[in-house]
Amino acid sequence: MSLIRAVVASGRAALIVSHASAVAQHRLPWIGSFGDRVVVTDPARDRGQTKHRIQRVGSAGRMPPVELVDGVVVTSLAVTAVDVALREHPWHAIVVLDAVLRRGVSKSVIRDELAHRTAARSRVRALRLIDAADAAADSPGESITRWGSIVLGAPPAELQHAFPNEWGGAERVDLWFPASGTIVEFDGATKYTRPEMRNGRTAEEVVVAEKRREDRLRARYEVNGFARVTWADAMPAGQLPRRLIEAGVPLAPNWGAAWRAAANRTL
Q: What CA–CA distance (Å, rounded) separates 230 from 236?
């Protein structure tokens, strides 16, 4: 945030914080580092330019919708979502798109913004990402696991599916594949390591509770498979295909080529 403020303060007033830097300014989730350059949209330019700490993206006179976030002029949530969908790695983009939908921006608004990019490259891929985005995604790990399953050609998954329990409540799971009867849980380390996520329990108590919960879910008549997926599994070139196949989720015949193609682009 301090780098963004410093760069904007040293530049012209017409510069608009955008792309990955807008993600940071909006405090949207992101995988990994934002890098050491601030990305801005410059309506006065028709070509991009990179110098020192700033990367300018020319918009050829087009003034995108903007918001004022903590005193900084930044592209709107919808514009930011489309910029990321068009330019960034799909694993970055799906996390941002899911989060923008959770903020209340509708898919129709995002699609309308994409439609205004008449000369945009990567339009087909961006539209596929927008169509796949889901406000129900509860975490970046859940977002990339779902997107990975789509890339692999798995049947559609339901997010945050609720299984009623005998106490009148419900057990919610990250991804439920009804076609194969498979539960997939994203197993991030924070539920065990961060005190605010443990609700006063020790890490050991959380592990035991998770194991008991898994046993209850596995015992349900409609559940045929159960998989836990980590960050390393869900990232490109990870073991997500193996985790899904072992849990009974069918993949497309060409899943290997699709998974290799996802890993060929730098995240």
A: 12
pLDDT (tens digit, 9 = 90+) per residue, 2-52? 677 666 666 555 789 999 999 999 999 999 889 888 999 888 777 767 777
Query: Average of pLDDT values for 84-111?
Result: 97
Candidates 88, 182, 188; CA nearest to 138 is: 188
Residue 190 pLDDT greater than 90, yes or no: no
**In the structure encoding, which two tokens stand for residue 75, read together?**
């592209």
Could you tell me if 182 and 247 are in contact, meaning their C-beta atoms sit under 8 angstroms apart?
yes
Distance CA 194, CA 173 (A): 20
- Spatial strand order of the sheet with 38-42 comes to 49-51, 54-58, 38-42, 16-17, 72-75, 66-69
- Helices 77-87 and 123-132: angle between axes, nearest 10 degrees: 120
The answer to whether residues 64 and 56 touch, using CB atoms and an 8 Å cutoff, is: no
Burial class (CB in 10 A: 0-12, 13-18, 19+), 65: middle
Helix, strand and coil in the chain, % to nearest 5: 45, 20, 40
Instruction: Give pLDDT tens digits for 113-152.
Output: 999 887 667 899 999 999 999 999 999 999 999 999 999 9
Sheet holding 158-164, edge to edge: 158-164, 170-177, 182-186, 225-229
Is pLDDT above 60 for 198? Answer: no
Task: Tell me what pLDDT residue 30 has.
Answer: 96
Q: How far is CA 175 from CA 144, 154, 183, in A?
A: 11, 12, 6
Of 147, 124, 115, whose CA–CA distance to 134 is shortest? 147
